[in-house]
């Protein structure tokens, strides 16, 4: 998404606003402005800008842990890619491949996360508003869950190819060094379908993840901050707890997704031929038992908690800035 120069300057001002706001932990009173209910003139562009800002901030800061998660989830990895845990993976990768390798593939995330999160939060707010989720002080769990699910379906369609490229670049021994080179290789050897083979499985994970996360976030926010004012501490804590809750419950499907997205690099012929959720799940169950579905659980939660905290804090900060900016 291309923002006008005016919007770019507004984002710079938003950073200064965050610095001022974070210095005061007291919530802005709800009477000052109706924060949860977006004003009529809160534009789609502003909503998407807030989402893009949140997505890039989230993925960039927590990327090394995402790489560790991918490495630990790989079924039958190469000899140099076998790790006993998070700390062992971190030290082994840093020593053998260099600290910079922990950010391998981040370019794919930066390119894809901005537009995908812009679509994500724009869809979330639109569906939430349409279902009456912004009305009154009542709790609206159905509106929150439905909004999260719809937002996920829309954003994942855009993000899935970038996620495939990211994981191909993250695995041990990857020969891909750029988005363009990885895209050409995957397309030439596996076809266009390789970029979307995991999309149904991704939705099986991200739709319940988002529904759980949004419902938990909205619930926690109303309990911690019943006044509904802009409060950085509330958004940070609620985002972290909601993310951990959703991540833990959806880890098994995330393991299946990783298998499908990295199948083209597998040494196991059975994994290379896996074509769907149930086939991939049967491979994991047969080779590693039920414990195999929880590979990478710890780094997934470690990644998700600060990621969702950063994501929600960034989004709510940007949203609060735009509302304040319109009131001035």
From the structure above, extract its key features.
mainly alpha; 328 residues; 11 helices
Tell me the layout of helices and strands.
Elements lengths: L4 H18 L21 H30 L12 H12 L8 H25 L10 H30 L8 H12 L8 H26 L7 H30 L7 H4 L4 H12 L8 H31 L1
Helix pairs in contact: 1-11, 2-4, 2-11, 4-5, 5-6, 5-7, 7-8, 8-10, 8-11
- Series of H and E elements: HHHHHHHHHHH
**Overall radius of gyration:** 20 Å
> In DSSP terms, counting alpha (H) and pi (I) runs of 4 or more, how many helices?
11
Our measurement of the CA-to-CA distance between the termini, rounded to an integer number of angstroms, reads 26 Å
Characterize the quaternary organization of these chains: single chain
Residue fraction in strands: under 5%
Q: What integer is the average pLDDT?
A: 81
Count of β-strands: 0
The major sheet is characterized as:
none
Low-confidence stretches: 1-38
- What shape does the CA trace take? globular
> Which class of secondary structure composition applies to the elements?
mainly alpha
Helix content: over 70%
Explain this structure to me?
Helix content is 70%, strand content 0%. It has 328 residues and is an all-alpha fold. The model is unreliable at 1-38 (pLDDT under 50).
Briefly summarize what is shown:
With 328 residues, this protein is mostly helical.
